[in-house]
Specification:
14 helices, mainly alpha, globular, 77% helix, 290 residues
């Protein structure tokens, strides 16, 4: 039950991120800088949490260093970079449809690299999940995806990579993984943002950011930390193939948020897609091995 709770809480925290990305983008913070600033807040949260747990000496195995680099930089750091660009450069529905294919990519990578067996119920859940994604987002034709679609697919691949590498690094605690994730994400994305978005820092753009926007950035960073931490914690209990499908419940929370805050009334297809996601999640919880 703990693993289910952590993954569902992670999905809930993730569901608000597209709104925050658009808000910060509309208020003048460029994409890389958005990620860099919220990673800074997330790193401080991870640092406080790590030392509050009074962790002992960190012992890293040399053989784990390449995998740690892949998880922290390729998995954690770049997932949000690609995701932010996709949300800002294509329709949100298309970006989300492509990003959430990570739930289909992760089981394939887990089968190849973790030798995780995919039982019949997992296969059914994967098929149902893909059908649900089509119903929920009804993405535009491939020709309209352009650069935003590429970023969304890269984000999906990076997310799936993190899910699998986290399982490979199961000997490391969630608190350590989040400390490593946020530190490397902060450093790498920080360097990229300063290089590619110099005007924001050197021509006074950062000085004109409003107090409200700074507050949203801080809240976004805390949300970023908690969402990834809960996901990292959840995969201590669940296989990559099963856990990735449970994370799709984020879409159900997204539908509820859209109705409560933006008065977007779900269509019949949206309801059907949400029901299918719920069915797929329940199926892997009950029948997909954890």
């Amino acid at each position: 039950m703990q693993g289910i709770f952590f993954l569902l809480l992670s999905a809930f925290l993730y569901s608000i991120m597209p709104v925050l990305i658009r808000f910060l983008g509309n208020d003048g913070i460029p994409p890389l800088s958005q990620v860099f600033l919220r990673y800074g807040v997330a790193f401080l949260c991870a640092l406080i949490y790590y030392f509050s747990k009074k962790q002992g000496k960190i012992t890293l195995q040399k053989k784990d260093l390449p995998l740690l680099a892949l998880a922290t930089i390729g998995g954690y750091g770049l997932t949000n970079v690609f995701y932010t660009y996709s949300i800002l450069t294509t329709q949100v529905s298309t970006a989300l449809f492509l990003f959430f294919t990570f739930a289909l990519i992760a089981p394939v990578l887990a089968f190849i690299f973790l030798k995780e067996k995919i039982n019949t119920f997992n296969v059914i859940a994967l098929f149902v999940s893909f059908l649900a994604l089509l119903l929920l987002f009804q993405p535009n034709a491939v020709a309209t995806w352009k650069v935003g679609g590429i970023f969304a697919l890269l984000s999906a691949l990076a997310q799936a990579t993190y899910v699998v590498t986290r399982k490979k690094l199961s000997q490391y605690s969630s608190s350590f993984m989040m400390l490593a994730n946020t530190l490397m994400g902060f450093l790498v994305v920080g360097m990229l943002s300063v290089f590619w978005e110099q005007a924001f820092y050197l021509q006074g753009g950062i000085l004109h950011v409003s107090v409200n926007t700074w507050l949203v950035t801080i809240l976004f960073g805390i949300d970023n930390f908690l969402a990834w931490f809960m996901m990292t914690k959840g995969f201590e209990y669940f296989k990559a193939s099963s856990g990735s499908i449970i994370l799709l419940s984020e879409l159900i929370f997204g539908i509820l948020f859209a109705f409560l805050f933006f008065q977007e009334v779900p269509t019949l297809l949206t309801w059907l897609g949400g029901i299918l996601i719920l069915f797929a999640s329940i199926l892997v919880i009950l029948k997909g091995k954890s």
